[in-house]
Amino acid sequence: MKTIHIDQLQEKLEAGEVLHVVDVREQDEYDAGHIPNVRFLPMSEIGERYTELQEGETYYLICKAGGRSENVGRFLEQYGYDIVNVEGGMMNWKGDQEA
User: Fold this and answer.
1) Is 69 marked active-site?
2) Domain count, the chain
3) Considering only CA atoms, which of 42, 2, 43 is closest in space to residue 19?
4) Residue 56 burial (CB < 10 Å; 0-12/13-18/19+)?
5) Rounded distance, CA 90 to CA 34, Å?
6) Comparing C-alpha atoms, which of 63, 79, 9, 89 is closest to residue 71?
7) How confident is the model at residue 43 (pLDDT cuts 50, 70, 90)?
8) In this protein, which residues make up the domain named Rhodanese (predicted)?
């Protein structure tokens, strides 16, 4: 699985790159603060909802620190999705957040 550090993701987003970022934390964590304009697809629902993701796109998965997003990434790779795990996660995000 490919990986990127949270600082690199932030640089890409601030440079205007259009990325498919998916926050896999749970509802309360997402509600407390998330990167603006990211897709929310909690890990607890991924088994029933992963087909909502479009095949052929690259998805950057983010959670609090990088562990859950790595697990979700391994699951999605089994179905042919192109995944990049964001290491460092939201606990290291320094940019704007929506709550």
Assistant:
1) no
2) 1
3) 2
4) exposed
5) 8
6) 63
7) very high
8) 15-98
Query: Is the whole-model pTM more than 0.90?
Result: yes
Mean pLDDT over each residue of the chain, to the nearest integer: 97
Catalytic residue among 9, 63, 83, 84: 63
Edge-first strand listing for the sheet containing 39-40: 2-5, 82-87, 58-62, 20-23, 39-40
Flag whether 97 is in a domain. no
Q: Is residue 27 part of a domain?
A: yes
Q: Tell me the mean pLDDT in the region 10-38.
A: 97
Residue at 63 is within a domain? yes
- Other beta carbons within 10 Å of 51: 8
